[in-house]
Write a structure and sequence with these properties.
Elements lengths: L4 H25 L9 H24 L9 H21 L13 H20 L1 H5 L12
Helix pairs in contact: 1-2, 1-4, 3-4
Length: about 140
């Protein structure tokens, strides 16, 4: 499948709003991590917001590939880059509102981001193809 920009946006927002929220709930309720804290929903929101911008860049770069496809290895690199970017903005630079620098543990942040990313990646590679069979043929658009 070669996703279109609109398909990327739809898929990202759908998966973060469903799978991402479900995976984030144990962190928010305090089952995983140092106690109940809504900061993890803010992390998820920032991943979605910045991700819409990153998708513009990814769509542009994808057009330079001969098959215009984005292999899974590139998705992994994009996920690592987004992790570093969000963590740097939140913890090191401290300019993301609603993400207090002192409340954000690097270990728990890494755990949360990794689990959300892995769940979203696995869902996009498997469950999306089952629930939305034509999703692949419409450039990632499910609407």
């Amino acid at each position: 499948m070669t996703p279109t920009l609109f398909g990327r946006w739809q898929t990202r927002l759908l998966l973060l709003a469903t799978v991402g929220v479900l995976v984030t709930l144990p962190f928010v309720t305090g089952v995983i991590g140092p106690g109940a804290n809504s900061v993890y929903f803010w992390i998820l929101a920032y991943v979605a917001i910045f991700g819409l911008g990153w998708d513009v860049l990814y769509d542009y770069l994808q057009k330079f590939r001969w098959d215009r496809d984005w292999p899974a290895a590139y998705q992994l690199l994009a996920g690592i880059w987004e992790l570093v970017f969000i963590f740097s903005c939140a913890k090191i630079l401290g300019f993301l509102p609603f993400l207090p620098k002192d409340e954000l543990s690097p270990r728990v942040f890494l755990l949360h981001y990794s689990i959300v990313w892995l769940a979203v990646f696995i869902t996009s590679q498997s469950l999306m193809r089952i629930i939305f069979p034509r999703w692949r043929f419409r450039g990632g658009q499910w609407l």
